[in-house]
Amino acid sequence: MFFERPTTNAEQTQGSETAILVHIDFPEGVNREDLNEFRELVISAGADPLDLVTAKRTTPDPKHFIGLGKVEEIRELLQLHDCQLVMFNHALSPSQERNLEKALECRVLDRTGLILDIFAQRARTHEGKLQVELAQLQHQSTRLIRGWTHLERQQGGIGSRGAGESQLETDRRLVRARVNQIHKRLEKVRAQRNQGRRARQRSAVPTVAIVGYTNAGKSTLFNALTTSEVYAADQLFATLDPTLRRYQVDDIGEVVLADTVGFIRHLPHKLVEAFQATLQEAADADLLIHVIDCAADERDSNIEQVELVLDEIDASDVPQLRVYNKIDLLEHGEARIDRDEQGNPQAVWLSARERDGFELLNQAMGELLGDELFDEDIRLQPAEAKLRAILYDAGAIRGEEYADNGDMLLHVRLQRQDFCRALARAGIAESRFLAQPKDPWLD
Length: 443
What we know:
InterPro entries: G_HFLX_dom, GTP-bd, GTP-bd_M, GTPase_HflX, GTPase_HflX_N, GTPase_HflX_N_sf, P-loop_NTPase. About 40% of the residues lie in helices and about 20% in strands.
């Protein structure tokens, strides 16, 4: 027997699709994938793995990805199990996928297609469904071997194709039209999200984005911190759609917590593109909470994969606090804060499930966000009333008094970068209120 797992009542009712799995053990490099993670992906997709075919290669075969001997072995297993689906734990080129389907006479799904299928099952909001459909269409546009005639009905069917147009050309045109339509809809969604971000920036509310490898416990931590009910389960990509909630940080005040989609090694580039609006929450955040499963065997590799995706979405420069979750699974796990040589928080060890270490996380967030906070008393002259109006609009004035000569004494609290923007809008030099770095050449 291959992977054994308990079957839920829902699966017994729906019936899982059976599949033969293929995993090639490549040397360390771009083609190397994790077998255990493949198992989790297959189970998350709702498939029932019947058998596993493994092999060792230095490089993929250009025609079939695997050798002809393995192709024959898979064909025999398909006949033995009366199965019509083969899943590869690797990204296949369109030609390799077509050649394999022709040789095996069944459907072939690569790692990218498998992840896309899981995303399609998990998407709940209108935006999430559009993003997944866009990624699926872009992935399948080079694999038009099973046809897209179902799209014809959306375009009117008869009368929609050009003179002398082949079915393949029609399918490609329909895909392009649908992709353009989804892009337009997503542009509206992005505009709405950008409007929400600008409103948060104007109100000087810091944003903290929770990122991490899928199934590291991001949603569990998010729910525990915000007493929300975001769907969380012990499965890959349990939640896709971003959720924003308010959270109180000691000495800072209210911040916005954003729960984002989980990352995975070799996350398909088309998915990164499609979920750009969602991932933008991380790129625009004031602080990233990088949640890590500290008990995972592939912990270091998972951290590296998350860093790669953050770099791809231009979020690598955002201040980051690592949160090593699931210390309850360690033999001697204790909640603690790790600090750098300057005493700044670098990592927090906690258990989201047991709610152990939350006070330390709150403390670390406050220290890191406090470095970027302008919390000072300032004195404005009557001619500088424009700055006062700008700060009031941003909700940054926490107290106000007037001096005998008419000067305004304000207690201001907001993000330092937002205070700098306010000074620029009011036409006031930063040196008026902010200490300027010394020029080393003048020492």
